[in-house]
Amino acid sequence: MALIEFKKLCKSYGSGDKKTVVCDNLDLSVEKGELVAIMGKSGCGKTTILNIIAGIDTYDSGEYYFDNSKVDIRTASEGVKFRRNRIGIILQHFALINDYTVYENVEIGLWESGVSRSEMKKRTLEMLDSLGIMDLKNKYPNQLSGGEKQRVAIGRAMVCKPMVLLADEPTGALDYETEAEIVELITKLNQETGTTTVIVTHDREVADKCSRTILLHKL
Ligand SMILES: Nc1ncnc2c1ncn2[C@@H]1O[C@H](COP(=O)(O)OP(=O)(O)O)[C@@H](O)[C@H]1O
Ligand SMILES: [Mg+2]
To answer: Is the model's pTM score more than 0.90?
Structure first.
């Protein structure tokens, strides 16, 4: 069954001469448990689509269903509520908080989840363990390599056990070897936890590790 479904979705930015059409009657669906790559040229709308899935951005017309419920978010607080325990996001440039330790950066992913302090601690430690970064827990982001930072960002996204993991060019800032490690880790998490995963990438090799590729065209 589809967990994410767009039906004839339209999205544009601006108006008149400055109008940029990003989606024009886009149909897209992602099944529960799938590991899907979204590919396409720069500017074709990959980030916009992830943002719509996450309820960070709105769409103009058409329909978006998440787990068979219509999603139509109009305010930032509706977005926060929608994402809670549903959506985990990782970004290309990690977006870690430099004043927080690795442990604290992962724990942030539970702030909105409504779990108790003791449960937060238990889950954060479990997450650090499964990512192989327990020994880094008291370090700060500026003491980490790119691959380690991305592991922390994955931990922050996954610690709330979201239904969907969204990753926007998660290997874009990494060298070749580290990229392979991170893709392997995301694949492993998808298999072990069954978390539906959508990866935006412009790298064929990354897409080949996914079960399916959705190719977008620039309008
Ligand atoms: N907030 C915005 N305001 C105006 N135009 C935007 C905005 N966000 C994205 N765009 C435009 O929409 C198009 C798609 O952008 P984006 O989704 O970031 O593409 P991609 O991630 O595939 O590179 C681009 O032409 C971009 O300039
Ligand atoms: Mg982008």
So the answer is: yes
